[in-house]
Amino acid sequence: MKELEKLIDYNFSNKKLLQQALTHSSYANEHRGSNIKHNERLEFLGDAVLSIVVADYIYANCPDLPEGELTKLRSALVCEKALFKFGKMIKLGSFLYLSKGEKNGGGAERPSIVADAFEAVIAAIYLDGGMEPAKKHILRFVIPEIKNQSQKPFKDYKTTLQEIVQKNPGEKIEYILTSESGPDHNKHFVFEVHLNSNVIGKGGGRSKKEAEQNAAREALELMGY
Asked: Which one of 30, 40, 47, 67 is the catalytic residue?
């Protein structure tokens, strides 16, 4: 466990929390009567902590992404594939307590087991030290992955709509601000997207870019794209 603590850069006050986070249900079942707790409850809590930390970070640091794209990005960062990748980065599988059968069957390299254990470790850190160390631990993996995701080609709704409209010479797209409300720290903008003089979509957001993206998205949906 000391080796794992070095890898995750966190020292537990309550070592039993880390031990529980590393204990698969198969190991606990194999040692019934020994009062060994497995990590499924911690996994449940870790999933919630992970989700709020990721949502909070991408909301604050990706201001131009509309709600739909934020949801896609969050899903990509908290899915089993991503968590398995994060777990492999700290060799998490090699630290797990597994039953003999599970170990011999390759359980230490099974994506679902490693991903669940990664969430359980998040919960253990959260319970042992609070939100800040849990957040620090999560963002060590998430921030580089966000940069990796952002390098993938992405067509925004405005670009897609513009490309469709350009197929018809003489057609013109324009975004019109129709309302602006709220205090400076919590503004809400509403935009209409006009095709020539016709309103073809409307959207709101906390930034002008987000509102324009949502207006373009509605236009695309109404057009059947």
From this structure: 47
Helix axes 80-89, 131-150, angle to 10 degrees: 110
Amino acid of residue 72: K
Per residue in 29-75, pLDDT tens?
998 878 899 999 999 999 999 999 999 999 999 888 888 888 888 98
Angle separating helix axes 111-129 and 80-89, nearest 10 degrees: 70
Half-sphere CA count of 81, side-chain side, radius 13 A: 5
Question: What pLDDT is stored for residue 176 in this prediction?
Answer: 95
Q: Is the pLDDT of residue 152 over 60?
A: no
- 47 catalytic, yes or no? yes
Tokens matching residue 217: 């998205």
Which tens digit of pLDDT belongs to each residue from 114-148?
999 999 999 999 999 999 999 999 999 999 998 87
Q: What is the average pLDDT across 200-223?
A: 90
| Helix intervals (H) in 90-110 | 100-104
Q: Is 184 labeled as catalytic in the residue annotation? A: no
End-to-end CA distance of the chain: 52
- Tokens linked to 22: 């590393």
Out of 69, 102, 116, 119, the active site residue is 119
Using alpha carbons, list the distances in angstroms from residue 51 to 30, 123, 221.
32, 12, 28
Could you give the CA distance from residue 58 to residue 61 in angstroms, rounded to a whole number?
Answer: 5
Interval 66-90 mean pLDDT: 90
**Positive/negative CA dihedral, 122, 128, 133, 137:** negative
